[in-house]
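BUG: 3D viewer hangs when loading the predicted structure for this chain

Environment: internal workstation, default settings.
Expected: structure renders.
Actual: progress bar stalls at 90%.

Input used:
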Amino acid sequence: MCESEFLLSTDKSKCNSDKSCLVRDCAACVADRSVCEACKTGFWKTPANFCIDGTCQVDGCKVCNEKGPSVCDSCKEGHMHLNGLCINTVCSEPGYKFNFATNRCEDTACKIEFCSSCTNSGIFGCDMCQNDYVYEIWSKRCVFDDSCRVKGCANCEGDVKKCKVCAVGLWYDAASNTCIDASCKVGGCRSCQKSGPLGCDACSPGFLKTDGSTCTKCSSKGCLTCTDAGALCTKCEQGMILTNGVCKGCDKDLCLDCDAKTGLCGACK
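Structure tokens produced before the viewer hung:
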């Protein structure tokens, strides 16, 4: 036993007057120099009264102060904390993604050719094919979709994005590559199959085709065909007589018996 001003050495072979800590890398000791109270900065105190290097020993760890360098408290970005360890969630292999259910990187690349998504079906199935492809259930393949992409098109053979023949009642507009309503839009037009709905091939009776796509109404009542911008009639309705470019005859609303040759009314209604 040493006197009060001395401390017994750790091997109990001598009494030392130096009261500095006997524990290596210790910053403060209790009265017994062999018991460390606090380690130096950068060191961690073990339950066995040692001061060890406090640098985190866990890969991917950011902070490990609470339970020592071998147990992580907080992981770096891209890592998941699990039971004091840090699991890397960034997969290095192409097509692989981290599965948080199994805690590992797994292959997620779709194995079916031309498949763009297989999240729900799995890598050997397909949820959605690439553009211009459709999934064929019986063969489990993404096959080229040869159906026409132009709405209302009946035939686009050779190029699915360009129409050749539109469906009945539609007209192909080559400028916009669309099928539009084929109904003639020009007033007095009878046929517009070649010119399209905004043009006119032939006008209805009583109209004269002018300016290529305009139907002008004949000015004479009862006129079927005319010239001179509609002012001069060339053919009248049955029961009316053509006189100097004008149709003359009975008023159908008032006449009961009209002479087809003279255009005169024989009996009124």
